[in-house]
TrEMBL record:
Protein name, UniProt field: Cobalamin-binding protein
Keyword terms of this UniProt record: Signal
Organism of provenance: Noviherbaspirillum aridicola
PANTHER family: MOLYBDATE-BINDING PROTEIN MOLA, VITAMIN B12-BINDING PROTEIN
TM annotation in the entry: none
Pfam family for this entry, one: Peripla_BP_2
Recorded superkingdom: Bacteria
Boundaries of every Fe/B12 periplasmic-binding domain copy: 17-267
Length: 274
C-alpha cells in the first residue's frame, strides 16, 4: 500500500501493535476501528477521550526510542513534518514498517481511514467510517463550493503571526466552503507574515484556529484595533477550535462545516451596507 510519502508499505500480516506519532493519526486510527491496536502515541493525542490513556513515547518532534521499542510495535504511523527524520530512519533500519500520513485535502481523510483499516484488518469498520465521512464532504462541497467567493485570512497563531498556504488541508476546507485563502499561493507551507500584509490584502473574513487557552487579546480580537479593515467592519472575525481545523483527522469535517456556516454569515453581511 502506498503512503503519503509515495513509499510502498507491505505488512506480512494485519498490524496488531500500532504506534501513532501524531495526534491526527491517533484520531484516524480510532476511526478506522483500531482502538485496541494502538499501543503507543505522542503528546497532545487527546481525542477521543480514550486516547489519553495510551502510553506516550514522546512528542511529534522527538520520540524516546527505547520506550518505543519496548512496546514492540509492528507498525508506526508517522506525520511527515514534525517527526525527526533521523529517528524514523533509525527505526526503519530496525525493520519496523513506517506509514507516513499527510492528508492535504478533505477527501484524503476518509481515504486514510480506509487505508489504515486495511493495514489493521479492520476493513469493514474503516470502510463504513470513511464512506460516511466522504458523504459529509460531498454534501458540503455541493452546498457551498459554488457560493460567491469570500476572501479569507486564516490565522494559525498571532505571536508570531503565521498562516497556511494552499498545500495545507485547511485551504482545501476554505475552498470547499467557497472561500479563497488570500495567502494560499505563498511557497512556505506555514508562512510567517506581517500585519501590514494582512491589512494590505484587506480580507472579507478572518478565521482563527484558536485553542481554548488562547487569550482573545492575542487571538482573533487582535484585529479589532483596525476598524477600517473589511473583516472588522462587517464583524467577520471567526474563531474555530484549532483541534477541529488544524488536525487532519476526521474532526476536520466538523471544522469545515462550521467554517462554511461562518463564511455564509460573511456573505449575508454584504447586504447590510457596511
Amino acid at each position: 500500500m502506498q503512503d503519503d510519502a509515495g513509499d510502498t508499505v507491505v505488512l506480512p500480516r494485519p498490524a496488531q501493535r500500532v504506534i501513532s506519532l501524531s495526534p491526527h493519526v491517533t484520531e484516524l486510527l480510532f476511526a478506522a476501528g483500531g482502538a485496541s491496536r494502538i499501543v503507543g502515541t505522542v503528546r497532545h493525542s487527546d481525542y477521543p477521550p480514550a486516547a489519553r490513556d495510551i502510553p506516550r513515547v514522546g512528542d511529534n518532534r522527538q520520540v524516546d526510542i527505547e520506550r518505543l521499542l519496548a512496546l514492540k510495535p509492528d507498525l508506526l504511523v508517522v506525520w511527515r513534518h514534525n517527526t525527526s527524520m533521523r529517528q524514523m530512519e533509525q527505526l526503519r533500519q530496525l525493520g519496523i514498517p513506517l506509514f507516513y500520513s499527510d492528508p492535504h485535502r478533505l477527501q484524503d481523510v476518509p481515504r486514510a481511514i480506509q487505508q489504515l483499516g486495511r493495514m489493521m484488518g479492520t476493513e469493514q469498520e474503516a470502510q463504513r467510517a470513511g464512506a460516511a465521512l466522504q458523504k459529509r464532504i460531498d454534501q458540503l462541497t455541493e452546498r457551498y463550493s459554488r457560493r460567491p467567493q469570500v476572501r479569507v485570512f486564516y490565522q494559525v497563531w498571532s505571536k508570531p503571526l503565521y498562516t497556511l498556504n494552499d498545500r495545507h488541508i485547511v485551504s482545501d476546507a476554505i475552498r470547499v466552503c467557497g472561500g479563497e485563502n488570500i495567502f494560499g499561493r505563498l511557497t512556505a507551507a506555514a508562512p510567517n507574515i506581517g500585519h501590514e500584509s494582512v491589512l494590505q490584502e484587506n480580507p472579507e473574513a478572518i478565521v482563527s484556529g484558536d485553542r481554548d487557552d488562547q487569550a482573545q487579546a492575542t487571538g482573533i480580537d487582535f484585529w479589532k484595533q483596525y476598524p477600517g479593515m473589511l473583516a472588522v467592519r462587517r464583524g467577520n472575525l471567526f474563531a474555530i477550535s484549532a483541534d477541529l481545523m488544524n488536525r487532519a483527522g476526521p474532526r476536520i469535517v466538523d471544522g469545515a462545516a462550521e467554517l462554511c456556516e461562518r463564511l455564509e454569515e460573511a456573505r449575508s453581511r454584504r447586504t447590510e451596507g457596511r
